[in-house]
Amino acid sequence: MRTDDVKGLSALFAAAVIWGLAFAFQSAGMKYIGPFTFTAIRNVIGAAALLPLALFSGKKPEGLKTLIPAGAVCGAALGAASCLQQYGLIYTTAGKAGFLTALYIVMIPVAGLFIGKKCSRHVYPAAALAVGGMYLLCADGSFSFNRGDAAELMCAAVFTIQIMAVSHFSPRVNAYRFACIEFAVAALTALVPAVLTETFSPDAVKACAVPLLYTGLLSSGAGYTLQIIGQRRLNPTIAALVMSLESCVAAIGGWIILGQALTAREITGCAVMFAATVIAQLPERKRYT
């Protein structure tokens, strides 16, 4: 394995651990402030933390014609996905949210078909298997999902766009400047619904300081920067497989930190969904004639 591949995998694995643990902090944050306010503040913290690196890293700044569209597209997707994820955590557990968000691992190869990339034949049975796992994990004896589960599924779809956009832009721009603009746009994206639907309370924000600092400095500031660094070295499907490990960390973190134990049925659903994410990435066998 090439050194660049090892560096990319290491960066994405570290990001997956940070994000997985973040679900517990995000869930705890909902006790104090609304999901959109939470998302806006954490991204402001992330942008502020990276601003010194964005200003002083790199020998030559890239052109604004490349940097601004990259940050704007990825930031809007990140903001929308984060809002959906945070909203869903009001109604579902950290472990379930982590696994549902990880469905982007199945969505990414399928989305590649629309931009001319061939899809492995393993993806289609994996998608069907993932649907079965979702039912076991989220449905309570019926074919309906609660609003939190639906929000997390939408979140996975938007994260698919964000991950593919990062793969497209990351080799062309400085990671810190890219991430700083991405977080600033994500904060603005969340600020609009926060102003329209939520009430800002300084006391509530103060009470939510620990979840905000973890998600702002580590999950946003460090995690998504590691994503940008890692994805410039790997193709998006391999990157998605590594990042999907956040779902396992989320389930463990929700159990240890929040006491959100999963039932036997939910554990089975998690296992089926994880199997689907692995199957989706199996290499094709070479055919010899």
Describe this structure as you would to a colleague.
The chain has one domain (3-279). The chain contains 13 helices and no strands. It is mainly α and 289 residues long. The longest helix is centred in the N-terminal third of the chain and has 27 residues, at 3-29. The chain is 76% helix and 0% strand. It has helices at residues 3-29, 35-56, 64-88, 94-101, 104-112, 123-138, 147-169, 175-197, 202-207, 209-231, 236-243, 246-258, 264-279.
- Could you estimate the helical fraction of the residues in percent? over 70%
> How many domain modules?
1
Run of helices and strands: HHHHHHHHHHHHH
| Tally of alpha and pi helices | 13
- Rg over alpha carbons: 18 Å
Question: Which residues sit in consecutive blocks of at least 5 with pLDDT less than 50?
Answer: none
Q: Pairing-aware structural class of the strands and helices?
A: mainly alpha
Mean pLDDT: 83
Shape: globular
How many beta-strand runs? 0
